[in-house]
Write a structure and sequence with these properties.
Layout: H1 3-19, H2 26-34, E1 55-58, E2 61-63, H3 66-75, E3 83-87, H4 93-101, E4 104-109, H5 112-124, E5 130-134, E6 147-152, H6 161-165, E7 167-180, E8 183-191, E9 197-205
Parallel strand pairs: 3-4, 3-6, 4-5, 6-7
Antiparallel strand pairs: 1-2, 7-8, 8-9
Bound molecules: S-adenosylmethionine (SAM).
């Protein structure tokens, strides 16, 4: 595929996968029409870069389906002024979308290979408002807190309490939560001024596991939490 083919596929993705399913945020639609998702997958998969599904990125992990990226990002209600915490850098595609729409992104990934690759690409693409960290993101990033928005792109057994603590008053968090591995509800939380939390369910989803102290055990055969 050449540059024009990718451009056309991206436009079709925005119209057919995002707008028709109800994504309305015009700035977000413009950004997803501009950022090349195909760049975030390996060369052999680039022709599928705008398909309506997740794609493998190595290490048994995936780049999320474009619609899920849009749905989660829209739910964060970004205005451009926020410091955003992202847990699960993966390919870096969601990180790029966030970097376009907020003031600063603090992104955490637990797999060194993925973090290094994503960082290199995002540097090449000249995103200068991203801080990277190799760690268990289920504990959040205390030194950088509070965050006006938090996005978790891996499925958690329950909402990690450190993340609630690190959410700023009036902050928004989106996270897939499910009591069994591989099947979750996408949950949006809003912290009110008095620090109480409102919860909204955005529908069913299927993410890879959030592995860590406030996530699942890294042993795939165990269904217990850490
Ligand atoms: N948003 C990513 C993208 O656009 O490519 C997709 C992320 S992928 C679905 C989930 C990522 O979360 C994986 O890269 C995985 O290694 C990472 N992850 C899982 N548990 C984590 C944890 N406790 N801390 C940080 N990253 C974690």
């Amino acid at each position: 595929m050449n540059k024009n083919d990718y451009h056309l596929s991206r436009r079709q993705m925005v119209v057919q996968q995002l707008e028709t399913r109800g994504i309305k945020d015009q700035k977000l639609l413009e950004v997803m029409n501009r950022v090349g998702r195909h760049l975030f997958v390996e060369e052999a998969l680039q022709s599928q870069g705008y398909a309506d599904n997740p794609l493998p990125i190595g290490e048994n992990q995936t780049i999320s389906q474009p619609y899920i990226v849009a749905l989660m990002t829209e739910a964060l209600e970004l205005t451009g002024k926020e410091k955003v915490l992202e847990i699960g850098t993966g390919s870096g595609y969601q990180t790029a979308i966030l970097a376009e729409l907020c003031y600063k992104v603090c992104t955490i990934e637990r797999i060194r290979f993925l973090l290094t690759k994503a960082r290199k690409l995002l540097d090449e693409l000249q995103y200068y408002n991203i801080l990277f960290r190799l760690a268990d993101g289920s504990f959040g990033w205390k030194e950088e807190a509070p965050f006006e928005a938090i996005i978790v792109t891996a499925g958690a057994p329950a909402i990690p309490q450190p993340l609630i603590k690190q959410l700023a008053p009036l902050g928004r968090m989106v996270i897939p939560v499910g009591e069994s591995r591989g099947s979750q509800t996408l949950v949006k939380l809003v912290k009110k001024k008095d620090n109480s939390i409102s919860r909204f369910d955005l529908g069913g989803c299927r993410f890879v596991d959030l592995i860590g102290g406030h996530g699942w055990s890294s042993d795939n055969n165990k269904s217990s939490r850490w």
